[in-house]
Amino acid sequence: MTTTLFDPLQAGALRLANRIVMAPLTRNRAPNAIPGALAAEYYRQRASAGLLISEATAISHQGQGYADVPGLYGSEQLDGWKRVTDAVHAAGGRIVCQLWHVGRISHTSLQPGGAAPVSASALPVQAKTYLHDRGDGRAGFAPTSTPRALAAQELPGIVHTFAAAARNAVHTAGFDGVEIHGANGYLLEQFLKSSANQRSDDYGGSVENRARLLLEVTRAVADAVGGGRTGIRLSPVTPANDIEDADPQPLYAYLARQLAPLDLAYLHIIEGATGGPREVEGRPFDYAAFQTAYRDAGGRGAWLVNNGYDGALASQAVASGRADAVAFGKAFIANPDLVARLRSGAPLNEWDTRTFYGGDARGYTDYPVLPPDGGH
Ligand code: 8OZ
Q1: Domain count, the chain
Q2: More reliable by pLDDT, 375 or 157
Q3: Does the annotation count 186 as an active-site position?
Q4: Looking at ligand 1, which atom is closest to the CA of residue 98?
Q5: Whose CA is nearest to atom 10 of ligand 1?
Q6: Which of 43, 66, 73, 186 is catalytic?
Q7: Which domain covers residue 88, as residue numbers?
Q8: In this predicted model, what pLDDT tens digit does every residue of 213-229 receive, in sequence order?
Q9: What is the pLDDT of residues 48-57, one digit of tens each?
Q10: pLDDT for residue 376
Q11: Of all atoms in ligand 1, which is nearest to the CA of residue 274?
């Protein structure tokens, strides 16, 4: 029998009812970093996904990089998330929290004491963030601030903060697990990828050194909540947030071999440019070889793929065994009942890009679902 998107999947300790996953989606509707009642409703509406991955959630104030993104480091934030996870669980769903440190993709106005954001090296970046006040009293996009390089003595604190956030997510906020954000040009990629890391200590230079922080974080998080409740998201060639590695294939093969023994629930791979084309000009990457490196090293986590999938491509990926599950982003914004729609072949609602980031219920909790009979 061929595997379909509607078959269950055991991913580590996580039992998924199907292989259709909601990708992490930044929505900027958490004032003071606290997810509110509307967030509980938004995630509850989408609980028929095999797994919901929360929007990226800052592990610390220093890890914040945008207006109104949620956190995991204050008791009101954790209370807000508990309302979300309770609502999802009452609807029969599963939800993990994406653990986020933005590194240099931030702005002094979002940092503790107005300090510079932190990174692997003090390299500016061509990227923008969204602020309530760009400095002229108006909301909008603003260039990120030049970072300072983290001192080696600060790195155990970063590792500890990821692990503490993971513990808070699972033990206090009621998440079923966590996903480490190791993608899209944020802190862990700033150490990993050569364009952002010019360090000359144990955390820069060789592949082993550049991968060190990501692997220390992953081991600490897996120790804190169990490898079977830990996933990681990676984006080997994305240009998101102005980042590039000069030679990604051996870098990710090394990561695959080091991640394999941690018995993670899943690896979540963004194929191509995040939210954009599945092929990136000038940046070829062999995803099958990456997966083979992981399996050959004994890795048993589920292989979750993402980026630009429609129902047909996703079905094919799962049927062929190339992937165990597929994450959908924008389609889940616009279709709370995406699983039912893919199952029945019903048309999908279109998304409205104007309501992706910030605002109220519009474009958040008001997308229509089909009647239970699928409209037949
Ligand atoms: C879109 C806007 C802001 C942040 C990512 C967390 O790319 C994000 C993000 C996406 O992973």
Answers
A1: 1
A2: 157
A3: yes
A4: 6
A5: 26
A6: 186
A7: 9-355
A8: 999 999 999 999 999 99
A9: 999 999 999 9
A10: 56
A11: 7
For residue 177, tell me if it sits in a domain: yes
CA of 135 to the centre of ligand 1 (A): 22
35 part of a folded domain: yes
Q: What percent of the chain has pLDDT over 90?
A: 95
Is residue 326 included in any domain, yes or no?
Answer: yes
- Give the residue, by CA position, lying nearest to ligand 1 atom 1: 26
Q: List, in sequence order, every residue forming a beta bridge with 41; answer none if it has no partner.
A: none
β-strands 325-328, 20-22: how paired?
parallel
> Does any domain span residue 284?
yes
Q: How far is the CA of 25 from the centre of ligand 1 (A)?
A: 7
CATH number at residue 88: 3.20.20.70
Using a 6 Å CB cutoff, which residues line ligand 1? Answer: 26, 56, 66, 184, 240, 274
Closest C-alpha residue for ligand 1 atom 3: 26
Taking only the tens place, the pLDDT of each residue in 160-180 is: 999 999 999 999 999 999 999
Mean model confidence pLDDT for the chain: 97
